[in-house]
Amino acid sequence: MWRSLSGAQRALLAGGLLVNIGTFAVYPYLAVLLRERLGAGMAQVGLVLGAATLVQFAGAPFTAAFAERVGLKRALTLATCLYGLGALAYLGGVAKPALMVAGLFLSCGAGALYSPAYRGYLVHSATAGQRPGVLSAGNAAGHLGIALGPVAGALFLHRPALLFTLSAALYAVLTAGHLLLRPERPERPDGGGRAAEPFRRVLRGLASLPFTVTVVTHYLYTQFYQYLAVFTEGRLATAVHGLIMMGYSLGLAVFQPLLARRTGAARYPVAMAVGFGCMAAGMAAFATGRAAGVAAGAVALSAGTAVLFLKNDLEALALSDRSATVTFGRQRLAVGVGTSLGGLIGGALYGWFERVELLPGFWLALAVQCLLLPPLVLVVARRTGRAGRARRADPPRRAGPVTPAGPAVNGPGRGGDPPPPP
């Protein structure tokens, strides 16, 4: 697969890796930094982080449509410029706390533009058979950056000025590198894309099944990512939990390219059964609360999400009549919806199990949801699809005036044609 990639695609994979290292060297520690700089409580910090996340995910369909219009190379270059401005705002926030918030929103806006343009550039010239490998390579580079970024950030956490200076320098180099990318060829209609539509119609023709499955995937995944640290506090050493989470991200970077060909060839229900089945096994293993069980659960969850993250995007590409870039923007919106639901519903559910002192039951409840929600989504999708086909096969008749028997005087009945149906 690596030999089949073009030089521009390989360069962009390196860019995606470095962008995520720069982003996740800062992002996991923002809650701490914002609380220290702003002197605010966690409720206020959570509100700021939630609003920034909303900008990043809800704006993705519109930033993807913007990238479709201006060109992917220009969009990628602009996004890295915004990342750099965000790093400079973080640096200024060491002295002026308001700039810290501005840097957060600049970085989230940059992510909303970079992510769909990055994936769109990788697959825009790939055939349907090449897409699983190319897309999995792009995802693997991103997940490797997510795994290494927090480690790099931890080295400079107590020297934030140096951290933000290095981040700004990294993004300056990346901006120059993206300027050297080869401009992409416009997508042809027979290649899965068509002329750009107005921004108000960025969701027109949405492929509902992969969108919904993506929401469910991230609804479940978010609860693992957000609440496992709270659950393991007092059960595992902090270093052990950190190693397990890094192993999860590295597992994604390894599993997805290894499974790319089989994932691409599998039918969607089969891929869902494998992916959600692995997620269910992983959630159940977390309930043990022991290092071996949590580590085994992370491995199972890594394999399951590797399949689902890739297959959801491939199915969305196959069913979409818009460009790959806009399709990835829609998928980012689905990720945002699922993440929000995971935070809201998962937080309430975790709190209930905590109050009744049955916290392992939280993970067992998630395992049950992993097994029940996907079949429910498929059943609803099939019934909705049958209803839609029935409506198209039997369109409603237009009402018209009742015409008496005999030769028609006016309208379509003239010349001996039969009168129109009532």
From TrEMBL:
Alphabetically sorted, this entry's keywords are: Cell membrane, Membrane, Transmembrane, Transmembrane helix, Transport
Listed transmembrane segments: 12-30, 42-63, 75-93, 99-122, 134-156, 162-181, 202-221, 236-255, 267-286, 292-312, 333-353, 359-381
Please report a single Pfam family linked to this protein.
MFS_1
Question: What subcellular locations does the record give?
Answer: Cell membrane
Q: Where is this region: Disordered?
A: 388-422
Q: How does it sit in the membrane?
A: Multi-pass membrane protein
Q: Which domain of life does the UniProt lineage start with?
A: Bacteria
By its UniProt entry, which PANTHER family does this protein fall under? Answer: MULTIDRUG RESISTANCE PROTEIN MDTH (PTHR23517:SF2), RESISTANCE PROTEIN MDTM, PUTATIVE-RELATED-RELATED (PTHR23517)
The protein here is known as: MFS transporter
